[in-house]
Specification:
This protein is mainly alpha-helical and about 260 residues long. The chain is about 80% helix and about 0% strand. The chain contains eleven helices and two strands; from the N terminus they run αααααββαααααα. A two-stranded antiparallel ribbon has the order 1-2. α6 packs across α8.
Length: about 260
């Protein structure tokens, strides 16, 4: 839209392709090609097969996919509730209070995720709250890691809200709870769905903190991919990675449809 000449548009597309293909498309295409191969000794893979997907969609891999989905959905919803609540509260605070909340919620993403995993492990490995060895410590760590993104997304959307709607409702005698549920949250719905999708996607791909925390009966799919590649099953690991990408994109597509409908209301 900003480039009007035909030459400029072609140049823009050329630069985009030169940056996009090597950095993003080629690695994904390599994983996709490897998932259908039995050997890769030359420039291109050989031995096309579907047997890797038999292993990637059954047994431990299927259970790991279910574990990842449950973990990501639960952590995403918790992060959305906590982050949105904090963002709405920060909007009513002064500058110092808002800065404090910003720093508090951004702290987990300012340090390596393995540090967050270690902190959660140390904090919840003894009474009164003993979560070590359970699925809940993994969900808690994922929630801590992704809440910052929900907070920043909703906080930015809250700043852009037109206060006229709330002021008009208040002048007509609407209670604060009514204004929140019937005016603010509906106006924030597109940002809420975007934040939910982002939290879900980040949780689906989280590995570093998960490796420190997961119990044997709660193994997310990224851990399964790491284990497969670590024992030399690169092609099976590629197939499992494709399943992880497909599941994530499918959920994100559903969230995008919800967001699109919310935007047109």
């Amino acid at each position: 839209m900003l480039v009007h000449s035909r030459t400029g548009k072609w140049a823009t597309w050329a630069v985009f392709l030169l940056l996009f293909v090597p950095l993003f498309a080629v690695p994904l295409l390599v994983i996709l090609a490897a998932s259908f191969s039995t050997n890769w000794s030359g420039a291109l893979p050989s031995g096309p097969t579907l047997k890797h997907y038999d292993a990637a969609t059954a047994g431990d891999s299927l259970q790991a996919l279910t574990t990842s989905l449950v973990t990501a959905v639960t952590a995403g919803l918790l992060a959305l509730v906590i982050g949105s609540w904090a963002a709405l509260a920060a909007a009513s605070l002064g500058r110092r209070g808002k800065r404090f909340l910003d720093a508090l919620f951004m702290l987990p993403v300012a340090v390596p995720s393995v540090v967050v995993g270690l902190a959660v492990l140390v904090a919840f490995s003894q009474p009164p709250v003993l979560l070590n060895g359970t699925r809940w410590i993994v969900i808690l760590a994922h929630t801590v890691l992704v809440t910052a993104f929900a907070y920043t997304s909703v906080s930015a959307a809250t700043v852009r809200l037109d206060p006229m709607y709330e002021q008009a409702a208040a002048s007509l005698g609407a209670r604060p709870s009514y204004i929140l549920w019937r005016i603010r949250l509906p106006l924030l719905l597109p940002s809420l769905t975007a934040a939910a999708g982002l939290c879900f996607a980040l949780s689906m791909g989280e590995l570093s903190a998960t490796m420190m925390l997961y119990p044997p009966d709660w193994t997310p799919l990224p851990v399964q991919i790491f284990a497969a590649t670590d024992r030399g099953s690169l092609f099976t690991g590629a197939a499992v990675a494709v399943v992880l990408m497909a599941a994530t994109l499918l959920v994100l597509f559903g969230v995008s449809r919800i967001r699109t409908r919310a935007s047109y209301r």
